[in-house]
Amino acid sequence: MTAGAGQTGVGAPAAESARNGVPADSPATRADAARTGGPADPSGLRQLAVDTLDANWEHDHTVPSRTLYPHQWSWDSAFIAIGLAHVRPERAWRELASLFRAQWADGRVPHIVFNPALRVGAYFPGPEMWRSADVPGAPAVATSGLVQPPVHALAALLAYRRAPDPAGLAALRRLYPALVAQQRYLADRRDVAGDGLVCVVHPWESGLDNSPAWDEPMAAVPAEAAVMSAYRRHDTAHADAAHRPTDLDYARYLAIVAAYRDHRYADRDLAAGHPFLVECPLFNAAFGAAEHALAEVAALVGGDPGPHRDRAAQITEALVRRLYDPDTGTFQPRDLRTDRLVGARTVLGLAPLILPDLPTRQVDALVVEARSARFGVARRMDRPLPTYDRTAPDFEPLRYWRGPSWLNIGWLIRRGLLTHGHPELAAGLRRSMVGLVAGAGCHEYFHPDTGAGLGSPAFSWTAALLLDLLAD
Length: 472
Description:
Belongs to the glycosyl hydrolase 63 family. The chain is mainly α and 472 residues long.
């Protein structure tokens, strides 16, 4: 996500909630009951997840939450489609189709698609900040100009696997060319260093907005906190400011957006002066995983899987060569402005586990890292996975991506552990994720030690990925 959300936690038990005007069958009430010993069984949690997704459905897509994210977000929709395929498969395909209708002519899939029915100012930064209508090749609907990790091909493949019927296959066949165009955009326009990896041009593109991984490259972005006096942040109106990115973070975010927007989102001159250029392990792992998924999709729809397999191998090789640090045994972002790896030990470094062709040496090193005191607990890994090194002096268990546990990241790492033959660790991680929702509801993110729900309640990708975990 790219901005704040309601921090209000789940309140009283179901009966008391009903007395206070909360419907007895609302997602919030179901979360209360699950937390207090009610339907914390799989069927109760499944119903909670379905109710959450139904409440957030918006005619052809799902909003991440009703509290602060009233539009459509790119990688949210991908994760949501995976969950919807278990219960509303036709919606899963509508979810992905609606997102890709906003694909730009150059192939980029914008990270926000704005709902034109909403008032100006319903979300910050809104269409008036991005001005996509001024850019040739942008779609008719207003969007941002950034992208997010390309988990969409994997989502489409998994949506079909969850509901393998003729309608799903037809939808997959229609979507395949757009998924290929998305990958082509990233390969052709965002390989700034010419090394086979994708460069993100804003922390929001990584999905982990204020991760400590971005502290060093962000420190070089010229911006003052006073810039924010011209704007009104919506996230801190719904959440404790101590749980959100700082005003200085936001000033720098806006400075980067303005720089990219004022160059009409052109990528050809990024190396000449764009203020933020980083090769992200998670983004590139998703980039490689997408080619693996597209190879399977191509085989399903009558295409040639060979080129996708070749590109996947090339991406994995480049990722190991450029972003793996043998001294720490983990992957780290590379700041292209300094051509140095960033030293912060974040969960981004574990993301390459999702690559099925990751070499054994790197897999073994990442498993050691995942089980270390920084991220896991010895053998079982059934403690919530933090987004940052628990042992670091600046670990912040409440502040967005600087410590809290998020289900989408845990879901990805679990998938990687299963891929590389660690079912016992994957099982522990699954227990921790299901336990978070059983204890606090479908929150946006969670305290990695207490399990308290943080951010927006009734959060869509949490509900969707819970459905996928329960189905296993």
